[in-house]
Structures are given as C-alpha cells and as structure tokens.
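User: Before I run my own analysis I want an independent prediction to cross-check against. Here's the chain; please return only the structure tokens and, at the end, one sentence I can use as a sanity check.
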Amino acid sequence: MIKDFVKPEVLAPAGDWERLVSAVDFGADAVYIGGSMFGMRTSPSNFSDEELKKAVAFAHSKSVKVYLTCNTVPRNNEVDRLPEFLRNAEDSGVDALIISDIGTLSLAKKHAPKTEIHISTQAGITNYATANAFYEMGAKRVVLARELSMEDIKELRAKTPKELDIECFVHGAMCVSFSGRCLLSNYLVGRDSNRGDCAQPCRWKYHVVEETRPGVYFPIEQDDKGTYIMNARDMCMIEHIPELVDAGVTSLKIEGRAKSAYYTAAVTNAYRAAVDEFMKNPTDDFKVSDWISEEMRKVSYREYCTGFYFGSPIENAEIYYEGGYRREWDVVAVCEKWENGELFAVQRNKFLDGDELEVVEPGCKPFKLTVIGLKNEAGELIESAPHATMKLSFLCEREVKSGAIIRKQKEEPKRVII
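Assistant: Structure tokens:
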C-alpha cells in the first residue's frame, strides 16, 4: 500500500462556458480558466469580468475550485492594468491566481491578498530551492516544469514544506521548448507564444533548402513527405497514478483550454475514474480499468508518451511522419433528457437509424446502443439526423443522464491538421 499520500486533485481546462460545464459535470475537482487579459491562451473565448463571476459561482455551487491564469510576462505598458485585473479576480471569488512573473506576484499580494498564488509552469521550477523560494514569497502551489522525472519530483517534495502543493501536467500537448518558453512562433509569424498567441510552428512540416538553390527543397528524412522534426507527442499518464501519487504530486493537470468541450469531458471523466479507482486500491501495482485507458484514444490525440517522467524521451519524443491529431470518434449528439424509454437529444454530427453509438455519462463506463426508431422533433420517423443542432429522439431502454455525450466511431480515423 502507498502510505501518507493526499488524494490527488483532478484539474481540468475550461476555455469557455461550454467547456467549464463539461469539466464540472464530468468530475473535475478544480478548473483553470483565463480572464480578459494576462492568460497564456488567446484562442479560447476566455471570460470577461462579469462572466468570471458567474463561472466562479457556478463552479463553487458544485464544490469545484477555480484557478485564474495570470501567467503571461507583462510588458511595461501593461503593468498599470494589473492591479485592477487582480482586484477584479479576487472580487469574483477565484480560488487562486496562476502567476509566472515575480513582479505580478508582488502586485497580487498587494491587490489580491486573500487569493492563493500558484506559480505557473512558465516559471520553469526544476528544483527544491526555487520551489522553497516561491513558497517563502507567498506561493501556495508550484506547477513544476514538464522536464522533471519522477525521481526529481520525489526529491523536490521531500525538501519542501508539506503545506506547499505540487501540481504537474499529466495529459495533453507538449511543447518542444523548455517549459513552453519558445520564440519560434514570434520570429516566424509575429505571434508571441509567451503571451498566449502561439501559432504552433513546431507542428509544421519542414525541409532543408540549400542557399544557392532557392525553391529546391530537400527532405530531412529521405522520403517524399518531409519530416515533422519538432512535433512532440502528447503526454498521457492515465496508467501511472500510483507513481505520481508516490512522488508527492497533489494536483493532476490536464492540458487543453483551447480544445473541445468533448475533449474536456472525456479526458476529465477518465482521470476522475482513474483517481477514484486508485483510492479504492492504493497499491504500487494498481492498474486502471481497460475502458479508462481506451478513453484516451476516443478523443483527438497525437501518439502518446510519458514525457520526462521516466527519463529523457529520446526514443519517442517526436512524431516525424504527421503533424495533426488523430480523431477516431465523432460526437453526434448530446442528451437533453430521457423519458419512458426514449432518449431526447440535440444533434452535433450526422448519424443514421441503425447506427451503433456509444454514450458517455459522468462517472460511468461508456455503454453502446443501437439507434432504433429515430424521430425528428415533430415525432416523425426519419432515416438520418443530418442537420446540425436538430432535436431528435430514439428508443433507449436504459436511462441516460442529461448532458451525456453520444459519439460514433469513424469508419476511417481522420487526421486533423492544425
């Protein structure tokens, strides 16, 4: 048995209201979101000041904590806006501010003194001395650099106060640069990755050009596809909950504020189930149920690895042959209600009467069903559901929770280029 551990928090991303609801409904203990400024993701909708208050109220009503990102590195012309941002954050009731810059940290202590401070992975914390320094400056939590091994984390945990939380990324996209500190996007297209606007040029296809032969492209690997020399695999630690807990990790962070509500729901649900299973049997040889591991391939993903947790990923760090995501399942509907043996839903993608689908409910193993008696909103039998957001129903003996996700396996897995 693993002893003297804290039940790890499942921390999920929430890029907008829909994704917030998905994270909360599907089992997150806490969510991290962006406000109107100073966050590391500009592509999600994020939350205005008023929306932030509503988001916090909603999450707190479900006993879920909210952490607000404030982890860009502000320039001189932005510093004057920080005090108001920080005061608004505290007034909204957020549980913590995620900060990477020590100037911002100093201002947060002054203008949001009642709000916890979490130090972002952007700060590049790789040793216990740095973690202790941030703790002495008022941090309640440190989000460790992704470049640390389990042994590194164990030593850091042993040499820091037990009151200091340790948060680690356990799932999602990985950056080719140290702790996300990359200038490639800024140089190539003028979009600063350290200010939340990365164009992900590490995912692009590259060839070599010899300077006296402009326009003649030579593949870096000898094939006709070129190579994705910087395209890092995604991280997945769903099968390593015991090692993470034993190392002293107190919060399991899922990457993906810019990803879909379905991704948020399915991945959060899987990690929630994995942690709950582990808590019932907290042994070194604990193994998650097969269905939980399988969920990792029912969302959009790149090939997985375990990052730096078990040593430098020299052998399987990058994917050289493709730059996009694999998507093997589509969301086809979302359940509105279940009544008297009939499931009522809103369509998301086309499906047919007779199709085999799979239902994902919060806290449950997904189950399969066959579409029988497909009807439109008027109650008329139809052969297919071809129109986005159309209301429909079909027979279903098993009761289904409102908000459950209904998905269908694709006949040919799709590669989604980003």
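Sanity check: The radius of gyration is 23 Å.
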